[in-house]
Design a protein that fits this description.
- By secondary structure, the chain is an alpha+beta fold.
- The protein folds into four domains: about 1-30; about 70-250, Orthogonal Bundle (Penicillin binding protein transpeptidase fold), CATH 1.10.3810.10; about 260-600, DD-peptidase/beta-lactamase superfamily (Beta-lactamase), CATH 3.40.710; about 600-675, Immunoglobulins (Immunoglobulin-like, Sandwich).
- Helix content is about 35%, strand content about 15%.
- The chain is built from 20 helices and 25 strands.
- It has a five-stranded antiparallel β-sheet, sandwiched between helices. The protein has a five-stranded mixed β-sheet with strand order 18-25-24-21-22, with no helix packed on it. A three-stranded mixed β-sheet has the order 2-1-5, covered by helices on one side.
- Helix 9 (about 220-235) packs antiparallel against helix 10 (about 240-250).
- The chain starts with a helix and ends in a 7-residue tail after the last strand.
- The relative contact order is 0.08.
Amino acid sequence: MPHPRVNKWSRRIALLFGSAMMLAITAFTLGWCMVTPVVDDGSQTAESLRINDRNGRPLLRQVAIDDQWREPICLESMGPHLPLAVIAVEDERFLSHLGVDPFATTRAVFQNIRHAEVVSGASTLTMQVCKMLDPAPRTFRTKWVEAFRALKYQRKHHKDEVLELWLNIAPFGGNLRGARAASLHWFGVEPKDLHLAEAALLAGLPQSPERLRPDRYPEAARKRRNHVLDRMLIEKCIDDQTHAEALRRPIRIFRHQAATSVPDAVGFLAAHRRPRGGTTTIDSQLQHTLTSLIQEHHHRLPEGADVAAVIIETSTGSLRALVGSSDRNDPIDGWVNGAIAQRSPGSTLKPFLYGIAYDSERLGPESELPDRRISREGWSPNNYNQKFDGLVAANDALRRSLNIPAILLTEAIGVTKSVATLRKLGLTLPPDASARGGLALAVGGLEVSLLELTNAYATLARSGEYFPVRMFKDESNTNPTKVFCERTCGHLNHCLASWEHAPAGMDELPPRDRPWFMWKSGTSSGHRDAWALGHNGNYAIGIWVGRFDGQGDPAFVGREAAGPILGEAFTRLVAPSSPPPTPTPIQVNRPYHFDRMTLSDTGPRIIEPAQNLVIECQETYYQRIRGVGDHMHWFLNGERIELVTDHLRLHPGTHRLVLIDQSGQRDTRQIVVQRARNSAIR
């Protein structure tokens, strides 16, 4: 029979144990209900920007929004050593516990009670993940919250997910977050390529990232690495021989080359198009040689001139090289990307206007176009050489870049249809392009970008099929848009071939000694922009020369300023190609009639007043008017007038004066009469 005193103590122990259990259950229940789960808002895994060339070499690197380098990768890409090293040194029972290690927690409790402060946290990898996702000061309460959060987090996430997240957000010294950023920075290799000793060093860094930095404190880093290797041996992750070999391995930190120049504009353009980064289609070697070629030519250009260039692989539409400025180190202009700036294209749109006419079979290369003086609403355009040839064949007019035939052709086609075709070629034009450009569209009346215009020329190499430029390797070509037929492209390519006419500096070579490519130059009004663009079947290349502030210079002539760079680019930078076969003739149906569109030298002409006249008067102004022509009729503001004298009475306002002859040809003037302000008399 049990002794009564024994029964009494047994009941007391049972009561005490039961009370403790109830207290523990109550505390756990309250903690479970009160502690909110940790939330991963993505800020700790926000990837730093990485733009690569087609071979994986860096074009642009930028830190995340909080100035940290982060490059998250999946656990399978971490390699065999790093995950094992982290588990061995940080949480040896990681694979078996539920988020909190009860053995480590018990040990830590006694250690902390004995020292009356937190000296051991017993943090599991899951608890550390919760802490990194929601940092807080190191206190007893914080550890209590982290424990409950770890239990909740572990219920919803697999062990591999926890380990992968830890490896992607843990600090590794400086502003390095995550194993990949650390591996590339400290050792210059991907995590999967780390040696065991290197993986052990990285696994030890998060305990005290700044105190253990291998570049500043190599001895402290070595001791921590050896401790990690010892833990791996104890946990049987490695054998004795592997352990000994890793201990003997010296620590060699990767030496990064200092940046010697500003990143190319193409990197920033790619980052703008895809902020999350990616692998581009850029060929770094071609990019470098294109930049060098531009530098060779830059010295012959006027002071302050800039150059932009684009190279596109025509078959895929892949952007292979892009130079936005000839001097990236210029503190102002060096940061302007001239390849995407909107500038007046001069005559570089003319091939596409002729292409519209060829495609409609209303004009052929041998068709004759008028080349004589014309006037449209007071605008009297001229050819670049200030001469007129009367009648000229279409292919000759295009090759010589005559303005009058191109303007008349645009008028015959229709400005609206011309603008629609240019949009099909990928050119970004304003909504009111038809009204804004008008007939001046043929001579650069609308602004375009070099990148888009170069791709339009690539369309001529693809037998008239357009698709957008590809900047990233994982982009797929959309369904192409058929803009021109193959025969039309063949005639344009044949007419503008380098064998028929060549850029400055190449014209002294015999035609068959020149590399074959088709090309067209352009010069904007006021000599603000010089262009040269073309393709050789495999590559389309575009060159722009000018000043970013828009200041003109007589030297900015397309053939002379941009042409030599284009010619050398086709000669030195890209592989030569065979010329295409001679296209079949175009059978012209319903040819355009230009007789009524032209204004001969004997047509009506207003001598006085001058164009765009602005005068001031108090109430009424008497303007002298004179004109020449046969059977002339004067109109003022849309109403016919009979002149009694050679002066016209005008009141303040804007007036439109038109002189028309019996054939309907006309000349126009605009007169602005402003009311004069009364002077103050003192």
